[in-house]
Amino acid sequence: MDTATARPEGLFGWMEGLADPTRLRLLHVLDRHELGVAELCEVLQQPQSTVSRHLKVLSSQGWIEVRRHNQNRLYRMSEGIDPAARRLWKVARSESEGWATLHQDQLRLDRRLRDRRVDGDDFFAGAAGDWDRLRAEWYGTGFGTEALLALLPPEWTVADLGCGTGALAAALAPDVARVIGVDRSAHMLRSARRRTAGHPNVELRRGSLEELPLEDASCDAALLVLSLGWVDDPGRALAEAARVVRPGGRLALVDAVLHDDEAFRRRAGQVWPGFEPARVVQLLQAAGFRDATCRPLPPEPAAKGPALLIARARRP
Predict the structure, then answer these.
(1) Which of 26, 81, 165, 263 is 20–30 Å from 186 (CA)?
(2) Burial class (CB within 10 angstroms; exposed 0-12, middle 13-18, buried 19+) of 277
(3) pLDDT tens figures, 93-108
(4) What is the pLDDT of residue 126?
């Protein structure tokens, strides 16, 4: 607040707000927690009419703010409080810390907060068996993937090898610095360009996975998702992936588990009818990767094709 234009009326109002014991108690509680009127009545052991009257005063002076939640009004200390008022509050809070009444308020507040947790625990105890369905019904299913993508270092360059129509490249783009998609199919790349048009950090290149159009150690991570089974030489493709990943960089691979459905293999145009997990680990190690692991993925209920596996490895 500019002292040259300061007016004493504001100071008098703030001092009036802090001068009442009930309002001071309310501010101590609402400085740390957001509570409804009924909860504040329980904590302060005051009737609703009294609590509501003092809340109205504090709200008019800018000390607190309110928001609606379902049928309730929830109160908390205002985040936009005047800096001069904030300084005055810090002094009042410090000087009243030892007040025995506040200690009693805190004990009742702790009990109220424990009751809140019990209410939540009761809900989850009853909903545990149906929680996956409820969560999908309320929030959808995409947030889990978004949370995992948010774990990626934002400065990374990721190579999407065998990018197809660009679905993964588009999903990765908001969370990393750069995505380079490579595919040998001009038709796939046309679809990928349409899908990633709104992501200027996505670059698409046409090329073979066995001869990647990428510089040595130019990427922090590489993805091969449903692409290794379509190359003539999987070992060479993995060696190329190792070449373009920097030392310490990562590789993730998803492909089909070895299957004997020849009709599916021909329909999908696969060169290889999937891979055994142990074989994938051998190929990754031979390509120069370390700490390679591979495991089958649980088939999704609606999936009609072969089961999938997932592998990961690190370039030393």
Answers:
(1) 263
(2) middle
(3) 888 888 989 888 888 8
(4) 55
pTM: 0.62
CA-closest candidate to residue 63, choices 43, 93, 99, 98: 93
The helix/strand/coil state of 279 is helix
Q: Give residue-wise pLDDT tens across range 223-250.
A: 999 999 999 999 999 999 999 999 999 9
Give 109-137 as a DSSP string: HHHHHHHHHHHHHHHHHHHGGGHHHHHHH
Confidence of residue 5 (pLDDT cuts 50, 70, 90): very low
Element (H, E) at 218: none
Burial group, residue 281, by CB count within 10 angstroms (0-12, 13-18, 19+) = middle
8-137 CATH fold: Arc Repressor Mutant, subunit A (1.10.10)
Distance CA 171, CA 225 (A): 13
In one letter, which amino acid is 13?
A: G
Q: Summarize the confidence of residues 161-176 as an average pLDDT.
A: 96
Q: Does domain 142-314 have CATH number 3.40.50.1000?
A: no
**Domains of the chain, residue spans:** 8-137, 142-314
Mean pLDDT for the stretch of residues 34-52: 90
- Other CB atoms within a 10 A radius of the CB of residue 108 amount to 15
* Higher local confidence (pLDDT), 18 or 274: 274
Segment (H or E) for 146: helix 142-149
